Amino acid sequence: MTIVGPRSFVAALVAACVTSAGLPPARSQAQGQPPPLAAAESALAHRALDRAVNLASSYTYRHPDDPRGWMVLGKARLARSSGSAEHRLQAIWAFRKVLAAEPANLEAWDLMGRAAMLLGGLDGERISRDAFERLIELVPEDPDAWANWLTLYRGRGERARMRRILERHESLPEARARTARLLIEEEHYDSANAVLDRLLRDDPFHPGFLALRAQSAFEAGDTATGDTTYARALRAADRDDRGVLWSQVIGIASPAEIRAWEAGVPLALREGFLTSFWARRNPDLFARWNRRVAEHFARLREARKRFPLLHPLSAYQRNDTTRALDARASREEDLFYMMCEAQEFPGAPMSSEDRRRMPFPESGFWTRSTGVQQDALGGAFPGELETIRLPPAIAPFAKGISDVDPTAAGAGYNLRTGLDDRGVAYLRFGAPAHRVVGANNVEIGACRMSGLERWDYPGIGAVRFFLPRAVGGRVADMIFRPQNEAQFGGTVAALTRDATSVPAALPFGMWLAEFANAEDSRRTDLAVFATRSVVAAQLVAGLGEPAPPEFDSVALVTLTAPPGSYVLEVNARSGDSLGRLQRFVRMRDFSEGRQLSSLVLAPAWSDTSVDRRSVFARAQRDLVFEPGSIIRAYAEVYGLPPAESGTLRYRVSYALYPTDDVRRDVDRDSLPGGRIISFDRERPARGRTTVEWVDLSPELVRPGRYLLRVTVSDADARVIGRGQVGFEMR
Question: With a threshold of 0.85, does the pTM exceed it?
Answer without folding.
Answer: yes
